[in-house]
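Summary of Year 1 activities. Much of the first year was spent building the evaluation harness for sequence design. The harness presents a backbone, in tokenized form, and records the residue chosen at every position. We chose the following record to illustrate the format because it has been used consistently in internal testing since the harness was completed.
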């Protein structure tokens, strides 16, 4: 084995090992939200991305499916805690949580209210966890497949589906921050896979 082969083998080991570490800590962060889990998962993705950008050898046939599986695991599971962390940092606890995973916002009404009585509230952005998983699968899958235009389709579908719920400012802010954080995480993992198996 010459030096180039040894360097390539080391590079593939770093990519697979880093993605495996990131996948484990992404799943942990998803099931037991802890910032250190998310930081370790994110750091491992960065290491894998750097390694994927430097390895020049063709991907070993056995490694390609494993890299794709690990990358999708990181994209799907890590995006939810990344979005939750971004929302917590940006908005704190400013929005009351609803019973179905959304947030409670005041119902707009032109009728005068009695002083001291809170306006009625309704839940918006319900099902965000499930929608987030689907958007990350679609976004990461399109990048891994070499069709980044699919990411625009995913965002457009999500925007159209949520359009009527975005009249409240807190819903708009939550939608934008959560979507960007979730998709940024998924795209980083997917880009790592795309660069490694290109």
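For this record, the design step produced the sequence shown next.
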């Amino acid at each position: 084995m010459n030096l180039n082969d040894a360097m390539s083998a080391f590079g593939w080991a770093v990519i697979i090992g880093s993605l495996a570490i990131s996948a484990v800590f992404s799943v942990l962060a998803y099931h037991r939200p802890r910032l250190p889990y998310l930081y370790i998962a994110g750091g491992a993705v960065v290491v894998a991305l750097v390694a994927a950008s430097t390895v020049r050898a063709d991907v070993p046939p056995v490694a390609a499916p494993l890299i794709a599986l690990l990358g999708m695991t990181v994209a799907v599971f890590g995006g939810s805690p990344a979005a939750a962390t971004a929302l917590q940092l940006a908005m704190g606890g400013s929005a009351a949580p609803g019973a179905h995973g959304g947030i409670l916002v005041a119902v707009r009404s032109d009728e005068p209210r009695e002083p001291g009585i809170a306006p009625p509230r309704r839940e918006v952005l319900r099902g965000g966890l499930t929608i987030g998983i689907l958007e990350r699968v679609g976004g990461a899958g399109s990048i891994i497949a070499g069709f980044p235009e699919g990411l625009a389709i995913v965002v457009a579908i999500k925007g159209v589906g949520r359009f009527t719920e975005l009249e409240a400012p807190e819903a708009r802010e939550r939608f934008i921050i959560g979507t960007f954080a979730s998709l940024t995480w998924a795209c980083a993992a997917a880009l790592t896979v795309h660069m490694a198996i290109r």
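Helices lie at 3-31, 35-54, 63-91, 128-144, 149-162, 169-197. Quantitative recovery figures across the full test set are reported in Table 2.
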